[in-house]
């Protein structure tokens, strides 16, 4: 029988906040099939952002089965990516006792602020790599212990959404070092659960999944999962990693000094390093990709969501799906928006301040400003916030040699140029790839011995365009950035007073959609 010489195929499965996407890739980086299944993000009370784990499991199974049905090539394995910071309480049989509490959930704000205020808070951040913030499972566990003590006592295991999906697919209760490095519960220097963090959370090591490397391979699927997906039961399953570090891999930003920037609904800036580290002020996170690749950076809550808000609040006459018209309006205003600055904290903020306190603000309004200035200032604010994150990345001692960017914003020529101008650096835009799913597939290929190393990602990812900063615009933004940075500190007392007054004020207007993804 002739030997099959076709490149091997791995399906990267990316469990996101609003959908799961399964994408099949071969070892030459070609996409052979793709399918996405969405699900809701529930907000039953203010500050809540949770999901039904069963709906996500169903989406994983369906997305895989649809891709398998498209393929003529045999599947060498599955490899997983997942949104980070989720938390689910399970009973002794592995059944969920709680919803999946997502990163966007802010109910544990008080617990996070209490932890940040004690002297050991920064030490905990530097040891675990995870900022003390309500996105993190550590403050969430404190919230459950204090607000739902009876439920807290019933929980046999605390897991993330990917851990639970793998438990159902493979009957293995494991968590990879990448997802664990985003819990606030693992010592990133020792790759072990942190005893002080567990004591603070009020849980034991036995209540957490077994720690494994991101390239760990589970031996196969359950009979039921195999039947639903259409895959052989012996199909290898690579545990995989978190979506942030895998997005770096999917953009080919795998070597030290290579920064990956993404702006979807939210945004992030991450650089790969070879040893875990956090800057002295705690402005960045540090999450694992492999044992010798770590992503140092920061995520922001307010990316493309700001443009959507601008359309709804400032230009409702343009109707829905008016992104192109909004960007065209913004292009009519000059760089710097005529001295108008917007703090884009519509959904509070994460990096580099890691606080749920701030609100959005326009500063510098005059009678001459029009809506094109307000829209442009909003877009500039997103880019300026990313510039602050990049400053913190450098403060952690990291060299920045190259920036690669992706995400929905990259479709806009104005945003591409604006990002380069605000950062004051060239920015390269790879040809379209689903970053996290491609990263998961590449990690799976390394784990299965199909490629020599994930370093091949830098060669597989084709650069579509490199945008260079316009000198005049870059000078304008360089002058404005210190003012943008100062405004956060200047307004903290105001933000604090506003939160204190909030219970006695008329209710805030309901947003048209859930928290940012």
TrEMBL record:
Keyword list, A-Z: Kinase, Transferase
Domain Carbohydrate kinase FGGY N-terminal, chain residue ranges per copy: 10-250
Location of the Carbohydrate kinase FGGY C-terminal domain: 260-447
SUPFAM superfamilies per the UniProt record, alphabetical: Actin-like ATPase domain (SSF53067)
GO terms assigned for molecular function: kinase activity; phosphotransferase activity, alcohol group as acceptor
Pfam families: FGGY_C (PF02782), FGGY_N (PF00370)
Any one GO biological process: carbohydrate metabolic process
Family assignment from sequence similarity: Belongs to the FGGY kinase family.
Name used for this protein in its record: Carbohydrate kinase
Species of origin: Micromonospora orduensis
């Amino acid at each position: 029988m002739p030997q099959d010489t076709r490149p091997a195929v791995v399906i990267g499965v990316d469990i996101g906040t609003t959908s799961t996407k399964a994408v099949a890739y071969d070892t030459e980086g070609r996409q052979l099939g793709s399918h996405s299944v969405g699900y809701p993000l529930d907000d039953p009370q203010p500050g809540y952002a949770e999901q039904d784990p069963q709906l996500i499991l169903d989406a994983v199974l369906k997305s895989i089965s649809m891709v398998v049905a498209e393929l003529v090539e045999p599947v060498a394995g599955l490899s997983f990516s997942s949104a980070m910071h989720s938390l689910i309480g399970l009973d002794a049989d592995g059944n969920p006792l709680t919803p999946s509490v997502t990163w966007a959930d802010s109910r544990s704000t008080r617990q996070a602020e209490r932890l940040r205020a004690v002297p050991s808070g920064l030490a905990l951040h530097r040891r675990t790599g995870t900022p003390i913030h309500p996105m993190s499972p550590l403050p969430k566990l404190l919230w459950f212990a204090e607000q739902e003590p009876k439920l807290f006592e019933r929980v046999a295991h605390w897991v993330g959404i990917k851990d639970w999906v793998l438990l159902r697919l493979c009957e293995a209760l494991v968590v990879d070092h990448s997802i664990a490095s985003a819990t606030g519960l693992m010592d990133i220097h020792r790759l072990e659960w942190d005893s002080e963090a567990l004591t603070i959370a009020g849980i034991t090591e036995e209540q957490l999944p077994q720690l494994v490397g991101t390239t760990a391979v589970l031996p196969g699927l359950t009979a039921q999962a195999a039947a639903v997906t259409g895959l052989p039961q012996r199909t290898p399953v690579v545990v995989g990693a978190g979506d942030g570090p895998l997005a770096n891999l999917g953009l080919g930003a795998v070597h030290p000094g290579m920064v990956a920037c993404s702006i979807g609904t939210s945004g992030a800036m991450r650089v790969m390093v070879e040893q875990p580290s956090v800057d002295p002020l705690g402005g960045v996170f540090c999450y694992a990709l492999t044992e010798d690749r770590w992503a140092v950076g920061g995520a922001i809550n307010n990316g493309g969501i700001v443009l959507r808000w601008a359309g709804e609040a400032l230009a409702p006459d343009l109707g829905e799906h008016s992104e192109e018209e909004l960007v065209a309006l913004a292009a009519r205003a000059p760089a710097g928006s005529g001295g108008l600055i917007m703090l884009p904290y519509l959904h509070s903020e994460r990096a580099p301040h890691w606080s749920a306190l701030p609100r959005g603000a326009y500063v510098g309004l005059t009678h001459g400003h029009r809506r094109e200035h307000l829209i442009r200032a909003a877009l500039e604010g997103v880019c300026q916030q990313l510039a602050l994150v990049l400053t913190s990345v450098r403060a952690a001692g990291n060299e920045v040699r190259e920036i690669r960017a992706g995400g929905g914003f990259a479709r806009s020529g104005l945003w591409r140029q604006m990002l380069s101008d605000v950062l004051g650096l060239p920015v390269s835009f790879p040809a379209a790839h689903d970053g996290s799913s491609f990263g998961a597939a590449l990690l799976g290929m390394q784990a299965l011995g199909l490629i020599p190393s994930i370093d091949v990602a830098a060669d597989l990812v084709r650069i579509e365009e490199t945008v260079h900063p316009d000198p005049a615009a870059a000078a304008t933004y360089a002058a404005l950035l210190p003012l943008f940075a100062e405004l956060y500190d200047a307004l903290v007392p105001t933000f604090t007073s506003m939160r204190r007054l909030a219970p006695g004020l008329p209710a805030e207007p309901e947003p048209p959609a859930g928290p940012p993804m």
